[in-house]
Amino acid sequence: MPDFDLDLDRTARRGYPEAIFCQGKTAAQVAAIAAEVRSRPDVVTLFTRVRSEHVTAVLSQLPDAHHDEPAALMAWPPSPPPPTGGPVLVLAAGTSDLPVAREALLTARYLGRSADLTADVGVAGLHRILSRLDQIRAAHAIVVAAGMDGALPSVVAGLVEAPVVAVPTSVGYGAAFGGLAPLLSMLNACAPGVAVVNIDNGYGAGHLAAQITAPRR
């Protein structure tokens, strides 16, 4: 018996597929999971937190799988489904936040949303976010990835109608405590309409944004 039990019917139950969290899994375990996934090309599968050995393992079973190295994410089938629902915009406060932001971006895309990413719009230069108001106000949900003081989600939420999904990153100097400082800042956002996911959880942020912008049934 394998030491995993894939939930391949999750899409039928709740509209979104299971993702494979690879951190802590061996290459052999990931290869076995990828082999089972191969039998269901109708189900989008994301492999998150992949390391080099996981990439090799997945490609041994799914040679055309898409790999985004900065996001530490793989996807199969390699092409996202045609987008439906409202657009998602992902904002990265700084270039250092891009790995988490890209994980959110690709998650939203592979869950069927139109999604774009804009980087380097942190609060250290407010003119940068203000110059993009038309773009951010066109989005139906906004993911904001920020470390350091984590102030950007509150600023964005005060400027737009759409809900904001805040994802703290573990970027910052010592007093950022590996993302705890921005997490607390985001939880204490004075602007309403901010939902907060866990530190570095780009997948969770992208998933929530995809659910928010899903087509109405």
Q: What does this protein structure show overall?
A:
The protein has 217 residues and is an alpha/beta fold. The chain has two domains: 10-76; 88-212, Rossmann fold. Helix content is 34%, strand content 18%. The chain is built from nine helices and nine strands. The protein has helices at residues 10-14, 27-37, 52-61, 98-110, 126-130, 133-137, 152-157, 180-187, 202-212; strands spanning 19-21, 45-48, 66-68, 73-76, 88-92, 115-119, 141-146, 164-168, 194-196. The strands form two sheets. A five-stranded parallel β-sheet has the order 6-5-7-8-9. Strands 1-2-4-3 form a four-stranded mixed β-sheet, with helices on both faces. β5, α4 and β6 (115-119) form a beta-alpha-beta unit. It is globular and about 50 Å long. The chain starts with 9 loop residues before the first helix and ends in a 5-residue tail after the last helix. The model has no long low-confidence stretch (mean pLDDT 92).
Core attributes:
5-stranded parallel sheet; single chain; 18% strand; 217 residues; Rossmann fold; 2 domains; alpha/beta; 4-stranded mixed sheet
Quick structural gist:
The chain has helices at 10-14, 27-37, 52-61, 98-110, 126-130, 133-137, 152-157, 180-187, 202-212, and strands at 19-21, 45-48, 66-68, 73-76, 88-92, 115-119, 141-146, 164-168, 194-196. With 217 residues, it is an alpha/beta fold.
